Amino acid sequence: MRQFLLAVGLLAGTIMGAGIFSLPYVFRQVGTGLGTVYLVAFALIYFVIHWRYAQVLHANQAGHHFFYFAKKYLPQWAARLASFTVLGGLLFTLTVYLILSASFANIAFNGFSSTAVIMFWLLGSVFIFVRTWVLGVAEIVGIGGIALIVLVILFTGGVGTVDVPVIQPVSIPLLLLPFGPLLFAFAARSAIPKVYEVYRSAREKFSLKRAIFWGTMIPIVVYLFFVVGVLRLVPDVAPDTISSLGFLSPTVMLLIGVMGLLTLWTSYIMIGSNVFDILRTDVFKSRWASGIVAVFAPLTLYALGIQNFLVAVSITGGIFLALEASFVMMMWAKAEPRRYVVLATVPLYIIFAVGAAYEVVRFVF
Questions:
Q1: 11 near 50, Cβ under 8 Å?
Q2: Are 195 and 188 a contacting pair, CB within 8 Å?
Q3: Rounded CA gap, 361 and 365, in Å?
Q4: Would you say residue 151 lies in a domain?
Q5: Is the whole-model pTM more than 0.70?
Q6: Three-state secondary structure call for residue 1
């Protein structure tokens, strides 16, 4: 039972991150009823993706990573695109953290957002190269930070009603708006190898499928609590949520700001370390070249103008993570060649393709 709970916690903790801050705005735009439907639907979609990646790991008895599976199961062009997709998604995720660091610093210290981005980037970059055990501690701190922010928002919001319609008219572009943010909010493919290792090493075997299911579903509850708390406080919420909280007491803003920065920092060093390892192992082979790209690529994207939180989250989720999920399904189809099941994945390919096309058109125009 302990290993089962550990596996569930690892996956749920990895899922709950910066994506949570885009959800109140999404609910505000499409209504709380449709927003909840989307939330559950995309959690189920990502349960399928996580479970299928676990099956790919099981077929190979783990011991390998995404790039290895891409080369093994995909055509050469697709393997290269898959590798670029994963790396690009991680770099854009780091850029999302830089954008959010400005918002958290602004409410915590009132006006130091520009300086805070540089300080945050420097501290995050230095710790990219730390030992593995430090990353484990960082993960625990990050989960605690998100939980504390959710609790503060929930209790500050009180027990009033949410001033957002359950059902409201939406246009086709608004119907597609949640795709990117929700894919970003539930993506945790990188945690599946850890979950699988817990499963393999467990003395008392448990259902890996159940662990992945609950690990993917539990964040729904946390997300809903956060959305309800925020919309009680400020119905006309900003895309990054944080920018809307300037009316709270200085003490509450300082607490949320500091905990937010700490949470982002721990996530930044974990993902940055992953980027460094991928570059060092599969791209450059040189520690110096890998380190330079891992450190400077996110700041470069930020300096080039990727500073809108919702746009960055939507691009990361709707394009990079949608492609990554599609490649996972392609790998699984090769590792588990059961045609009647493979055909059932066609709707998922369509969902990811529509979401990616929408984000490309939205970004270009």
A1: yes
A2: no
A3: 6
A4: no
A5: yes
A6: coil
Long-range contacts at 105-111 (CB < 8 A, ≥ 24 apart): 105/257, 105/261, 106/242, 106/243, 106/257, 107/242, 107/243, 107/245, 107/246, 107/248, 107/253, 107/256, 107/257, 108/253, 108/254, 108/256, 108/257, 108/258, 108/260, 108/261, 109/257
Which domain, by its residues, includes 182?
2-95+162-243+271-364
SS3 helix, strand, coil % of the chain, rounded to 5? Answer: 80, 0, 20
Residue labelled with tokens 């082979």: 285
Q: What is the pLDDT of residues 30-42, one digit of tens each?
A: 988 999 999 999 9
In tens, the pLDDT along 253-308 reads 888 888 888 888 888 888 888 888 888 877 777 888 888 999 999 999 999 989 99
Whether the Cβ atoms of residue 92 and residue 312 lie closer than 8 Å to each other: yes
Name 146's Cβ contacts closer than 8 Å, sequence gap at least 6. 16, 17, 20, 222, 263
| 352 found inside a domain | yes
Domain membership of residue 256 (yes or no) is no
- Tell me the pLDDT tens digit for each residue of 227-251: 988 998 888 899 999 988 888 888 8
Question: In 158-233, which residue ranges form alpha helices assigned H by DSSP?
Answer: 172-176, 179-186, 192-201, 208-233
- Name the domain count of the chain: 1
The answer to whether residue 279 is domain-embedded is yes
